[in-house]
Amino acid sequence: MNKSRILIIDDEKPILTLLKMQLGKLNLDVAMALSGKEAVEKLEHEVYDLVLTDINMPDISGIDILNFVKSKPGICTRVIGMSATPWVMAGHDFDATLVKPFDLNTIQRVVASLGGNRM
After folding, report:
1. Second CATH level (architecture) for the domain 5-113
2. If you count Cβ atoms within 10 Å of the first and of the last residue's Cβ in the chain, which end, N or C, has fewer?
């Protein structure tokens, strides 16, 4: 079976790199985007099983990414929001939310629970 495809979006490269390494342990096909704009471009051309997005980004927010994904059925099945300020995620239709800083094992567990580890 094909690997699950995940898109990680964060404007901080060290966080992207760390998450890619950690989620790579789940045998995922991991793509990265350093901005909301880059993420939208990828989402317009690729299909992902899961999007893991930071909320507070300078160009396009993670909430805008969520709304974009939900408005285009078929480009992604699940969206996880990440933020150091959890109240900004409240009331939005994320499949899961993570509060920064988070434990890397928690990331693996949440992603796996949403089907991001199909083999």
Report:
1. 3-Layer(aba) Sandwich (3.40)
2. N
